[in-house]
Write a structure and sequence with these properties.
two-stranded parallel sheet; about 35% helix; 8 helices; 4 strands
């Protein structure tokens, strides 16, 4: 993705520098001591659909704040799996599936409700000027929903646990 970004924006004369990293390599400089990036290193920082996979997002948001220049921009995009809507006549089954997706025991998504928790986590991380745009996704059928939601494993576990009756999940896939 960094190469794609450079191809799109690198040759336009803007003073851009693209840096790819993970939370782990943000925490250690080349010598393994101290932070890799100094305070206020970046003009802007973006994270997209990552915090939902972490146990706690407050420290990550705090690190984003630390490495962003005063007056810089931090962009965070995270879903709220509990607010997804699928147009279906099988509302009770759909509700069970959303409950399975949002279960804290779901190993694929550790923070399924991060979208609704994000504002408060930003405040707790020390961010002051917080803008919030809420986007609701509505799917017209369950098969469309299932193409973006990695639910096979936890639906299988929910079926094994007896959360669904015979054929309930199969009716949604029609």
């Amino acid at each position: 993705f960094i190469a794609d970004a450079w191809m799109s924006f690198g040759g336009n004369g803007w003073p851009l520098k693209f840096v790819h990293g993970s939370v782990d390599n943000l925490r250690g400089g080349e010598d393994g001591q101290g932070p890799r990036f100094s305070n206020g290193y970046f003009d802007a920082v973006k994270i997209d659909r990552v915090l939902m996979h972490l146990d706690s997002s407050v420290s990550v948001i705090g690190e984003m704040k630390r490495v962003t220049k005063q007056g810089g921009t931090i962009v965070i995009a995270e879903p709220d799996w509990g607010s997804l809507v699928v147009a279906t006549a099988e509302n009770e089954v759909y509700a069970k599936i959303i409950a399975a997706v949002c279960s804290r025991s779901n190993p694929a998504i550790k923070a399924p409700l991060i979208g609704r928790e994000l504002y408060f986590n930003c405040v707790q991380s020390g961010l002051k000027e917080i803008g919030l745009d809420i986007v609701n996704f509505t799917f017209t059928c369950f098969s469309e929903f299932s193409t973006i939601v990695p639910f096979d494993g936890f639906i299988e576990n929910a079926v094994k646990a007896g959360s669904f009756g015979d054929g309930e999940v199969d009716r949604l896939l029609l």
